[in-house]
Amino acid sequence: MQQQQVVAFPTETVYGLGADATNEEAVQAIFDAKGRPSDNPLIVHVGNKEQVYEVVESIPPMAHALIDAYAPGPLTLIMKSNGVSAPNVTAGLSTVAVRIPDHPVAKALLETANLPLAAPSANRSGRPSPTTAQHVYEDLEGRIAGIVDGGATGIGVESTVVDCTGDKPIILRPGGITKEQIEAVAGPVGNDESSLNADDQPRSPGMKYTHYAPEAPLWLVEGDVPFFKAQIAVLQQNGKKVGVMASEELAPEVEQADFVHVYGSRASLNEVAVGLYNALRSFNTKDVDVILSEVFPEEGMGVAVMNRLRKAASETIVQP
Ligand code: TXA
Ligand code: MG
């Protein structure tokens, strides 16, 4: 880190790409390695609750409540920055995103470095976030100093990003902590990706970019199983090779597809989240022209799953 280099490491959500958050040059290396637009700010990771104070001006009551309830954990809080983080970490905003990850390797790294670590997800910009060291390697080989391999991550989607700078918490990105969990300790939430913050800028700068996309186009299919099967048939009649991202329940119904990636049961949306990014990546090595995915109920972890699927599909939704 002292050489302004960047290293990928596991967290409980996805792999992060870390560098000294106080060092502008090191942080720039993260943007370069990812090909990330410089107006999309990074999350600052700290090792414990006390260290949150090192990067923020103050901790508002709602943030205190959320930290007490869910940190360390898959939660990122937006608060006023105290300017300790390098300006490129926050992309010039007056706020900073802070998270205490809950993973033994991330904790050990933060303790050893004894620094706040700026770390976005360790993927190339636009691609699905990495849930294994292999995914990081596929995206960033030759572009970063190293990868700490801690096996597959446990949650599978990124942290929930909550803006704590206003009167009520606003969920900027659904993730590992659900809306119900936030409301239980911090009261009713607003949920507006497009509203403006105190700097008169979009609250969530990352939201405007393409995200999580596999190489082949992804379509989300609403409607019942016969409708899903009919979509496969029509595409194949038109000479297309069709991939399907399927739950265990859907998989036996769609064997006609050219490639089926099975990833968890509809009975457990947590399981679907764990396998989601690996599923999206699995098609990149398969000869398919289009990928079809089922949709999931938008409750609990299903909110984060559908948020990522919609972005990966650029909102391409096929309806009966
Ligand atoms: O689970 C996670 O959050 C993972 C692991 C590695 O911690 N990290 C992650 O980072 O997903 P990244 O950079 O891929 O996503 C950070 C999100 C982006 O949508 C960014 O726009 C938003 O947080 N963000 C960061 N700072 C912000 C700020 N000051 N105001 C509003 N949004 C901010
Ligand atoms: Mg990311």
From TrEMBL:
Pfam families: Sua5_C (PF03481), Sua5_yciO_yrdC (PF01300). L-threonine binds at residues 13, 36, 45, 99, 119, 159. Its EC number is 2.7.7.87. Gene3D superfamilies: DHBP synthase (3.90.870.10), Threonylcarbamoyl-AMP synthase, C-terminal domain (3.40.50.11030). The keyword tRNA processing applies. It catalyses: L-threonine + hydrogencarbonate + ATP = L-threonylcarbamoyladenylate + diphosphate + H2O. It is found in: Cytoplasm. Residues 1-177 form the YrdC-like domain. The keyword Transit peptide does not apply. InterPro entries: DHBP_synth_RibB-like_a/b_dom (IPR017945), Sua5-like_dom (IPR006070), Sua5/YwlC_C (IPR038385), Sua5_C (IPR005145), T(6)A37_SUA5 (IPR010923), TC-AMP_synthase_SUA5 (IPR050156). NCBIfam families: L-threonylcarbamoyladenylate synthase (TIGR00057). GO terms for cellular component: cytoplasm. Required for the formation of a threonylcarbamoyl group on adenosine at position 37 (t(6)A37) in tRNAs that read codons beginning with adenine. It comes from Pontibacillus halophilus JSM 076056 = DSM 19796. GO terms for molecular function: ATP binding; double-stranded RNA binding; L-threonylcarbamoyladenylate synthase; tRNA binding. This is Threonylcarbamoyl-AMP synthase. GO terms for biological process: regulation of translational fidelity; tRNA processing. Belongs to the SUA5 family. PANTHER family: SUA5, THREONYLCARBAMOYL-AMP SYNTHASE. Keywords: ATP-binding, Cytoplasm, Nucleotide-binding, Nucleotidyltransferase, Transferase, tRNA processing. ATP binds at residues 40, 95, 121, 129, 173, 212.
